[in-house]
Amino acid sequence: MEELKTVANFADPMRASIAQGLLESSGIKAEVFGAVSPYPSLNMSEQDISLKVNAADYESALSILAASDKAE
Question: CA–CA separation, 29 vs 27, rounded Å?
Fold first, then answer.
């Protein structure tokens, strides 16, 4: 198994899911950790939700997420 690195942390599971989709649409496999249910509206909490990618994709993922933040 390849090492996973955290590229972003979220308090909102929906935002984590959107970021995951953005990375995966760019060809980077991403996993969300810390979300309890696949239905985000049921889990609104202050809990730390992390988005992780393979270490080899870390820099690319950071660039994609940064570009996305600038586009908002």
Answer: 6
